[in-house]
Each structure stands twice: as C-alpha cells, then as structure tokens.
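PROTOCOL LOG
Step 1. Enter all chains and additional molecules of the complex.
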Amino acid sequence: MSSNDLMSGVLAPVVTPFAPDLTPDAQRYAKHCRWLQDQNCGLAVFGTNSEANSLSVGERMQLLDMLIDNGLDPKRMMPGTGCCSIVDSVTLTQHALAHGVGGVLMLPPFYYKDVSDEGLYRTFAEIIERVGDDGLRIYLYHFPQMSQVPLGIELVGRLREAFPGIVVGMKDSSGDRGNLEAVLSAFPGFGYFAGNETLLLANMRAGGVGCISATANVNPKAIDGLFQNWQADNADSLQSSLNETRAAVQQFPLVPALKKIISHYAADGEWNRLRPPLVELAEADGNKLIAELDAIGFEMQGIRG
Amino acid sequence: MSSNDLMSGVLAPVVTPFAPDLTPDAQRYAKHCRWLQDQNCGLAVFGTNSEANSLSVGERMQLLDMLIDNGLDPKRMMPGTGCCSIVDSVTLTQHALAHGVGGVLMLPPFYYKDVSDEGLYRTFAEIIERVGDDGLRIYLYHFPQMSQVPLGIELVGRLREAFPGIVVGMKDSSGDRGNLEAVLSAFPGFGYFAGNETLLLANMRAGGVGCISATANVNPKAIDGLFQNWQADNADSLQSSLNETRAAVQQFPLVPALKKIISHYAADGEWNRLRPPLVELAEADGNKLIAELDAIGFEMQGIRG
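Step 2. Run joint prediction.
Step 3. Record the structure below.
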C-alpha cells in the first residue's frame, strides 16, 4: 500500500440501528451506510457515535462482514478497533484488515486512568506486533473528554517514529484547535482528521486531511462540499453554514439526537432506539431539535424509501 | 438461595499473573487463589486490581473454569462481570452463575460518560432479564474515580426495589465515608462492602458486611482478623495496624505495587509483570516499597514454594 492510499475526506462514525430486542438491525445499517457512501462519505464504523462500545467483539465482526457482503467499499472504511483489552483490539484489527479496510481508528484502553505514556506505547506496540501486517494503517483516536485517556503529542510522536507507515494519522475529538495546530506543525503530512466539522476548514488550512464527525451521519453532502471546496473563495461561508447545523444538533446528547433526526427525516420510528446506557431523547427535546433544523432548511435528500 | 447465603467478610480482587507472552499464567493464578482461600479470603476475581478490563471475555471464562477445576470454592467467589456491552456482561454473568458463584460484582458500562440514571437502570435491568436466573446475586460496583460512571444512591435504591433478592449489595470504592453511611442508613441489611480495609471497621459498625480490598491480595490474614474481631476491645488498634500497611502500599499505583510485593515475598520474579496499559514499578520505587514494608514487620506467611 503506497502513501497515495492514505485516507482523507469526510467520514461518519456510523450510527448503529437496533431492533426491538436490541440486536443490531443489519438491514437498516447497510442501507444507511449505502446512503452515506453515495454522498462520498467514508464509513468510520464502530466509533463513539456508533455505540460501538456497547457492542460485543462478535457483533462488530458480524456487522462488518455484512457490510462487505453488501458491496460497500472497504477502502473508505475506518472501523474502530481499540478496546480495553489488547486481545480484543488485535482480533478486531486483524478481522478488519482481512477485509481490506483503508485504516482502523484505535482508542487507547480506556478503563484504567492516569496510565503512563510508556504503558500506552506498549499497548499500541503490542497490538501492532501481534497483528504483524505491513498493510496496517492506524489512526490514533484522541478523545480525552470521553475516554479520559489522552494521547499526548509526545506519545503520538514516539509511535509515529517507531512505526512509520503504520501509525499514519489520528482523529482528534478534543475540539482543541491548539492541539490541531501543534500536531500538524510537529508532524507535517500526518493524516490528521478533525473530530467534528466545525474545525474542518481550519484543519485543511493547517495541512490536515478531513474530518470524522457525528453530524456527517445526517449532513454528509454539505460537509463534503466544504472538504471539496476548502480552497474556494466561499469556504468560510460554507463553514459557517455547517456550523449552524452542528449547533442545532449538539445542544443535545449526540447519539440520541442523530437517531432522532434520521428517524424523523426517514419517517422510520425504528431508528429512534438506543442500546443502554444511552437513551432516546425526551419527546419535547426531539421536537425542539427537529423544529430548529426545519427552520434552517435542513434536509436529508434520499433518506426515505 | 436464602438470604443466609449472602456473602460477607474479606475478599481480594485477585491480581492476575502473566507469562512472558502476556497470556494469563494459570498455574500461578490458581496457587495465589489457594493461598488466599486458605486464609479465609474470598476471591473477587476479575476486578479492577485483577487487570480484568485488560482481559478478553474468553480469557476470563477460561480462568474461572480453571479455578473451579482446581477445587477452589465458588461460594466465596464474586467474579467481576460488568462490561461496556450488555452482551458481554450477560455472557460472563451466566457463565459465573453456572459455576455456582456466591455473587457477581458488576461495573456499569464505563465508556460513555454523563449517562443518565435511566440509562444505567435499563442496563442493569436488561442484564438481569437476559440472565433470567433467580439465583443471581448482584453486587453493584461503585468506583467513580476509575469508571467515571458513579452509581448514585437513588439509582441503587431503584434497582434494589425493582430486583429484591437479586441486587443484594454493592462494593463502594469511592472511599467516601459519607456515602457508606448514607447507603447503609437508607438500605439497612444491604450487602455493603467497603472498597478498602481502611473503612472496614467503620463499615461493620454502620451495618456493612466486609471489604473487598486490593491489599487483601497481600495482607489477607490481618484484614480478616479485624473482620472477625470488629466488636472486640482492640478493634481500633487492629484497624490502625491495617492502615499502616495500606499506607505503605498505596503510595504507589496499586496493581504494580501488589505485583512487586508478591514477587518479592514469594521470591518469584515472574509475578512482576503487567499487561499494558499498566506497567511495573520503577526499580527504585519497588525497593522503597519493600523497605517500608520490611520496616513495619510485614510478611506473607506461606507465600513461598
């Protein structure tokens, strides 16, 4: 795999629909992935917004198998494979690689807190060694607010140096523009994805490669529009428009908000179901969210039927 | 199972030894469990200090099978079975129940933060319903500093009321004496284990049932001595003595410290190995720890050979 194959653009951490018995709803899942792919949106399946950490290892592998069987393009897929246990991370990473995915998005182990950089380094090194495949492309997943285990710039640099061509990028969900600029300044050419689209333009201007954003589940075309046109004269205006939609959505917990939006615009109540510990939006909140989106002319073309 | 069967006393969250290839070392594990049981210490296998969240579901089940095959008493076992995914929690809980364990210690799902009590309630309710066994005895595991997902007293009360005879107790590792007194005052007879032995005497006086403490891995006999004699005239003095050992140990990260202690007193360097992201103590720290323990006359009788 040459460096030309490195991933870029807009990816969605694909939300996972559940049947009434809380098993993943494979049919709706494949359909949503198809809708995203048709709008040039990559599939960061099994991310935070996918409720991936509420799925078992077996469920994740079955869902990925199913997407491949349904003809979705593995090269635009970046499955989340970082678990608390090295054993699970290796299992998921090997499985994803066997399907030819473009890369994997790897959380650090997130149960133990205040762990050392040495411990985190050993974790990633052990996974890489066990996977033992030169085709592996790891995007480190920095999301300190959720994981409570930050991946600092020194650790990122050490991993990048030890495993060039394997540790090729990161998703930064910290929302910290200072970190964005520090990382890209320290590591030019690093495959840096902003964790939401409000930093997409800043990221592209600093040398980043795109964004992986919850909101891409519902607003993929517009976000990709900015990615394609970030050097255009109207880029700041495109960014402002994205920010407006994002602001309406992120007033509420993200996963319930996304499921409410899909449920509403697809006219499919089955989408409005989460696996515990997450819960659906209260009805009043859901109505407020939809009313605000309607008011700014938001739509999801082609999501029905 | 009658209420007479409810668990009490001192339990150790058993530390898990690893071979050079980082697989669990079954032989040393069984031996350590036998040493603990011989000193009347129950086995809270697969807890925080067991590095359980660095193990896969399969590894945990194999280790438990092995302990049972080795004749250790399931009635004094309280395996940790709470995972991020309901599916995994159900798998581990059913497996443990099939072995006749005295109870299970259940973490809430710990990836998603700021989750609602409703979401946590649904998690435990779904697990209980899926397990579907009246013999289930759940001890809720409250450890906000590590899990970052507290189990507040309202939630505990709601679960206890909805599932009487099943949600029978908790382990509180918050170290918050106010919570200890509030819980036992609100729910007399609740099977409340203090999360470390420094609160053992206070817990027994407030109506609790014992403690589940990291340090029980190395100091089980003395801790059980206070449990057996908490109403004796010298109970405060016994508590002070336990606190002295605890203070020496908890200057350092607990799991590395425990492994260093066992490694030293068992004269077995193989014990001094952790699975990433945890790492062994630096040599100087380890030497300081052992010197302080030696200075207060600490010993681990029968740990060698």
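Step 4. Note key features.
The longest helix of chain A spans residues 117-131.
Strands of chain A lie at 9-12, 42-43, 104-106, 138-142, 167-172, 191-194, 210-212.
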